[in-house]
Design a protein that fits this description.
With 166 residues, this protein is an alpha+beta fold. The protein is built from 3 helices and 9 strands; from the N terminus they run H-E-E-E-E-E-E-H-E-H-E-E. The protein has a 5-stranded mixed beta sheet, with no helix packed on it.
């Protein structure tokens, strides 16, 4: 085999490998984006973040000194044709740049006591096809950071989703 043919085949194989790697990254490695109030569609879900709002106090529950509760209200609908298990449903995180905040159970519980109509999710339950769940998550963050920060949400569902616009 001539050197020209060998080089040509090596280049062709390299191009095919790069094309495949780029396609795989685009399919699995990219994040979807959305805004508050917008319907975000993935393969399994229609997701809507209805609101993101700061609270100095929820009912009789106050955040830690210097803190604020940030409450996220969202809904998601199973648009697939199979039930989705409780541990495979969307999880939301509050993001300040690269800092990830997990939901605060006390703040979430307090909000659900004050506004039970905003959250109809169940602790351990499959989400059957066609059903929609409303969920609330409260986060406890430093008030001064909340007021000055550039915030977003990271929703981990069947695809990572970054939500802005609040």
């Amino acid at each position: 085999m001539s050197i020209k043919k060998m080089v040509s085949r090596i280049l062709m194989v390299t191009v095919v490998i790069l094309f495949f790697a780029t396609s795989v990254f685009a399919l699995f490695g990219s994040k979807q984006t959305g805004k508050v109030g917008q319907t975000i569609v993935t393969k399994k879900y229609n997701i809507i973040v209805q609101s993101v709002k700061g609270y100095g106090k929820i009912g009789n529950t106050s955040p830690s000194g210097g803190g604020v509760f940030v409450v996220v209200r969202m809904s998601f609908k199973n648009i697939s044709n199979k039930p989705i298990g409780a541990y495979n449903q969307p999880v939301v995180y509050l993001m300040d740049g690269k800092t990830k905040y997990k939901k605060d159970e006390n703040g979430t519980f307090a909000y659900n006591l004050e506004f039970p109509e905003h959250d109809n999710s169940k602790i351990i339950s499959n989400l059957n096809p066609g059903l929609t769940v409303n969920r609330v998550a409260a986060f406890e963050v430093l008030k001064s950071k909340w007021e000055k920060g550039k915030w977003s949400l990271l929703i981990q569902a069947d695809k990572d989703i970054v939500v802005t616009g609040f």
